[in-house]
Amino acid sequence: MSTSYRTAPTETDRMPPGIPYIVGNEAAERFSFYGMKAILTVFMTEHLLDRSGELAVMSAEDAKFYVHSFVVASYLFPLIGAILADWIFGKYRTILWLSVIYCLGHLSLALDETRLGLGLGLSLIAIGTGAIKPCVSAHVGDQFGTANRHLLSRIFGWFYLAINLGALASTLLTPILLDPASFESVFGGLAEPLARFGIRPGPGLAFGVPGVLMALATLVFWLGRNSFIHVPPRGKAFLSEAFSGEGRQALLSLLPIYCCVAAFWCLFDQTASAWVLQAKDMNMQLLGTTWLPSQLQAVNPLFILLFVPLFSYLIYPAIDRVFPLTPLRKIGLGMFLTVPAFAISGLIQVWIDGGATPSIGWQVLAYGLLTAAEVMVSITCLEFSYTQAPPSIKSIVMSCYLASIALGNEFTAVVNALISRAPLDRWLEGANYYWFFTGVMLVAAVAYVAVATRYRGRSFPPQAS
Question: What is the mean pLDDT of the chain?
Fold first, then answer.
């Protein structure tokens, strides 16, 4: 690595100079990922073509299986990215190079609407987003020294806000870019002039815009290269540090926590699959607007933007006055709150199976509870994982946390793969599908209490002194 880069933070109580580039990169990258993911289920079930250009769409069960399998891959590749970063290349170069692969994945989705383009595109995106994910969050922490470490919690909050600003914008926009009627309604007189330049609604445009944002994210990250702290890779010492001594102890202590948290992601990521398909059978009019089924996912990042400051400045301090609120307790409260959130979707499906057309407002209520749970589980786990990791293996620990997301989605993917077979096709049809996952969450939340009370770990500084 070039010696012109700083390898250790300066002792200051101010914000590190590289943070704006990291936050800007994260907002654009998350726009690209969530914009693509928001329309994935609808694309698979309504727009997918064969090689001759004819429609060759997937069933609802197949689409859910492939969406969750893609998420599994996206959250398993962090293990590879962490090893590349901590062992060989360092975080900066790993993030930069794999971002290029990420861009190529978006290009494939935009240019080829068949299963070949879909498979190639999702594979490249899974490699790109997965491998850079643990490096980015650990790279944030690397920018801080002992004098400004007190700002770390605030930055992880802002980091999460950047994620959700990007997600909010993209989940509102990309469904419109995919649907011709919505595109005409929103852009009106601009639709015809845009068509002259080849800009027409459909999968090419809907997947292409997130690709442009990913290219912008890569550029922003490169522009910050001289402002970042570049922690050098550990080389061969990385392996012995990761799997012996305090590194092994940290991993062994955290893994039971992550296994329980996997159940949260098992339910949460169904907002991009099962909840989208459920919304098709609901009354989509709300607040004077007719929403698209995939567009309603924007409610989640909108609630995040409202809930992060609400929880930080009001709810957490209020709870802490009567009940000491440790990170592990925050996670536990969030897991129990997920149970009623998914139970609402089960109730919605009961009404639909009874021939009713319930208002989408019920799903908004479920999103509210689920987002509150996300604030307690996801943001807390992100910061907790970083602080509990020894300096030499912070990327590895972050990737193990992200693997819990993969584990939860793999469970969901397997369940959906089995639904078409007897007897699960009868046991888990209709509302029973949602009650099953609600029960899984309740069991996991109870198990988490037992695991968390036995947790023994320690906090580590941002990097070795």
Answer: 87
